Amino acid sequence: MQLLSNFLKHKKIDSELIELIDTLMLACKEIALQLREGELSGVLGISDNTNVQGETQKKLDIIANEVLKKVLLDNPLVRGVASEEEDHAVFGNPEGRFLVTFDPLDGSSNIDINVSVGTIFSILEVPPGEHEDSDSLFLQPGTQQLAAGYVLYGPHAVLALTTGDGVNMFTLAHTGDFLLTHEDVTVPSTTREFAINMSNQRYWEPAMRDYIGDLIAGSDGPREQNYNMRWIASMVAEVHRILTRGGLFSYPWDSRNPGQPGKLRLMYEGNPMSMLIEQAGGASTTCYDRIMEIQPEHIHQRVAVALGSREEVQTLMRYHQDS
Ligand code: AHG
Ligand code: MN
Ligand code: MN
């Protein structure tokens, strides 16, 4: 089985990008180690802090954020990082070529119950020209991403990675190496499985209520077949399932926070996951527009997300267009 860096070299990926991905994996391995020991390493439970989005931080949200920030900013290739857990972007080498955004720990409500969590990342390049250090360096649409991926910390740790030429998966071996285990992953174009938090149903738009209602009606409804449902409350785990066997995942707009476009974050969740799904032949949308074409206005911007098997995503978009 091939080592991550050998595989990327073989694919003729830019050597600086390979070095950056190796650095990211150094941090993810450290996070995987901390997670493995759970209660024994004293990292479970909540902290006294609230992040910029008003969410109570888990101890591990903070630890994972600190590990990623330190390891990345120690690499002179990195100009700056933007994180779900930081108020503003944090800068390193002014000559650095890359910008990295990340959700240090996705699905963190699952930590204390020993269910899968993950780290999501996206790599951008510093735009050409002279720029001062500021959040605005990061405000590039998802189509500009050089690479994106996640590490799922489940029963085993898996990296799903795209550098814009398909999606490959690497499993973390006991030796500390990520080894190629799934090459050229593709999302089946149709599916009979969906993932959505049904408890928010009464806050959705009518089009979403109709669409999910028809899935639930199964063989008695207009879709004329039965659908299965999953909700892990960890986007990394949901996207991993979809990359593995297809499916549809949505966290749509809802009226609990009418001024907010959605719950998930465009730069740390929406864009990297959209790049992975599209690179595997799936589709990703706000229900109306392609997520990767959104011009971000601020780094913590939120977005409605529906992604997965292409034909099912297109069906969901038709419900929204028709409404
Ligand atoms: P995070 O743990 O980084 O805040 O993200 C959690 C996200 C996403 O992973 C998941 O799909 C969703 O929030 C779960 O939200 P609900 O608890 O509202 O179902
Ligand atoms: Mn998240
Ligand atoms: Mn998070």
Automatic annotation (TrEMBL):
Subcellular location field: Cytoplasm
Family according to the record: Belongs to the FBPase class 1 family.
Chief localisation class: cytoplasm
Broad EC category: hydrolase
Keyword Magnesium belongs to the record: yes
Name recorded for this polypeptide: Fructose-1,6-bisphosphatase class 1
Gene Ontology cellular component terms for the protein in this record: cytosol
Residue span(s) of domain Fructose-1-6-bisphosphatase class I N-terminal: 9-183
Involved pathway(s): Carbohydrate biosynthesis
Domain Fructose-1-6-bisphosphatase class 1 C-terminal: 187-320
Phylogenetic lineage: Bacteria, Pseudomonadati, Pseudomonadota, Gammaproteobacteria, Oceanospirillales
Binding site for substrate: D106, G107, S108, S109, N197, K263
Cofactor note: Binds 2 magnesium ions per subunit.
Organism per entry: Nitrincola lacisaponensis
SUPFAM superfamilies documented for this protein: Carbohydrate phosphatase (SSF56655)
